[in-house]
Amino acid sequence: MTTLRLRSDHSVGVRPADLDPNLALLPLPSMAVTAVPADPMASDGGSGYRGRVHELTGWNRLRDRYRNKGTAFTAAERDRFRLHGLLPPVVETLEQQLDRVRIEFDTKGTDLGRHIFLRLLQERNSVLYYSFITRYLEEMLPIVYTPTVGLACQEWSRIYRQEHGLYLSWPERHRVGEMLANALGGRDDRHHRGQRR
User: Average model confidence (pLDDT) for the chain?
Assistant: First the structure.
C-alpha cells in the first residue's frame, strides 16, 4: 500500500485532487486512505495515482469517537456500517441519549468521579459529550475545568484510563520528533496491534 498525505485542511469530503502520493502518511482518523494505480484516462494531474477513501465499519467505526453515535445509529446506518450485533437493538435519539447520560452522571458521588465519567464519554462519543456539556454548561464547567481538572491532574496516575492527546516528558525530550511522528502517524487497528504500515 502506498501511503498518502492529505493536502487539505482535513475537512470532511476528500477529493482525489486532495491526495498527494509523494508525501508521507497523515490520514483522517476516521478513514482508511489508500492509493491505487490510476486509470490511464482519469484526470489525476499526472501523478499516476488516485486516492480511494474507505468508510470505517464495525468495531473500527465504534472506536472512532468522532464517528461513533452509539445507539443513535439508525437501522440503515447499522446496515451500511455493519453494526448489527455490536450495539443494543434499540435506536435512540440524541435527546434520549442525553437523558441517559444525565442519569448516569448524577450517580457519581464526587466531582472527580463525574470528571472521570465525562472523560470516558468524550473518548467514546464526542458528539454526545459536547452536547451534554453544552446543555448543562454552567454546571459542567467546574467539572471539566477549574477546580476539578486540578484535582484530576494531581490524581492523574491513579485515574488514568485511556490515552488522550500527546504525552511529552522532560526525560524523553530527545524523542520529541519521534513522539510527534507517532502521534500524527494514524491510530488504526494495525497501529494498536504493533504492525507497521
Answer: 73
